[in-house]
Amino acid sequence: MSSYKLYYFDGRGRGETARMLFAVGGCEFEDVRVSGDKWKELKPKTPLGQIPVLEVDGKQLPQSRAIEGYLAREFGLYGSNSLEAARIDAVYDTVGELMARPIQLTFYEKDEEKKKAELAKYYVEEAPRRMGGLTRLFEMYGGGEEGFFVGNKMSLADIFFFAMTEYFDENELKKYPKMEALHNRVATNSRIATHMKNRPTPTF
């Protein structure tokens, strides 16, 4: 069995989906949380000078999307055929589009008043269209009211959606009942729930 080390900062960001994939896959890994001087030492040793980086038996794999795709395939969370895998990719990209603006504002806008105003604008002007698209994909590809994005089985699409919408205002999420229900369905998965309970308090 392969040994895994995941290198990322002590926060959620681009590392949390991979951590959740390990949890759902029931696979042990070393969660290396990097900060301060440790990052200065590690940075020149990474392929691209950035993290996350996954080590598989000592071999490095950079880029969060590549890491997540690899783990999802390893753990049977990437659909049962090529079409389902493509549908998972479509959902993944749509979630990325949904969350690009709020994540940008959350991490990079230092003016708190401007951040608040821009987020309010986003939730009125952009979020309904993005969430509407995700809801349509769920209705087209999913397994009904109690299902997931692609069929009746949890996949990378659902885990990525859940991890990213931790940054989506929970009161705004209530405006999209099917998406809120899906978010809650992932949250109540026993392995996700255990991960959430036991993970360190994130710095971001």
TrEMBL record:
Sequence ranges assigned to domain GST C-terminal in this UniProt record: 81-204
Domain GST N-terminal: residue ranges: 2-79
SUPFAM superfamilies for this protein: GST C-terminal domain-like (SSF47616), Thioredoxin-like (SSF52833)
Gene Ontology biological process terms, A to Z: glutathione metabolic process
CDD domains, alphabetized: GST_N_Sigma_like
GO terms assigned for molecular function: glutathione transferase activity
Domain of life from the UniProt record: Eukaryota
Pfam family, one: GST_C_3
Protein name as it appears in the record: Glutathione S-transferase
Source species: Patiria miniata
